[in-house]
Design a protein that fits this description.
Residues 1-22 are annotated as: Disordered. By secondary structure, the protein is mostly helical. Helices cover 59% and strands 4% of the residues.
Length: 109
């Protein structure tokens, strides 16, 4: 029996749909910007050679990541962001696949 993918989504909050940007559009734009910024800060953290600079970027990264999470939660709460529910069989397959990796990793024992 094949399980159909189901959307995980809250009821959508209605916003005006016209040529002007609405609340959903603005929040979606901010979310995309925060995602881009966290990706960029990750690269900067990986390549920072100065400890002081690393700490400053790390602080900014964490603030940006928190902002991104808050925007995501707001969009999800208003039904403007949906996810596909994973099939239980696929979750179990992934878990089995990766559970054998613990003996290959040097820091997990």
């Amino acid at each position: 029996m094949q399980q159909q993918n189901q959307k995980v989504q809250n009821p959508e909050t209605n916003v005006p749909k016209n040529a002007q940007m609405n609340e959903r559009d603005f929040i979606n734009d901010m979310l995309a910007t925060e995602k881009y910024m966290t990706d960029s800060f990750c690269t900067a953290l990986n390549e920072a050679s100065c400890d002081h600079l690393y700490q400053d970027i790390s602080t900014i990264f964490n603030e940006t990541q928190d902002c991104q999470r808050n925007l995501y939660n707001l969009m999800f709460k208003n039904g403007w962001y949906s996810l596909e529910a994973a099939e239980q069989q696929k979750i179990q397959q992934s878990h089995q696949q990766f559970s054998g990796y613990t003996n290959q990793l040097p820091y997990i024992h």
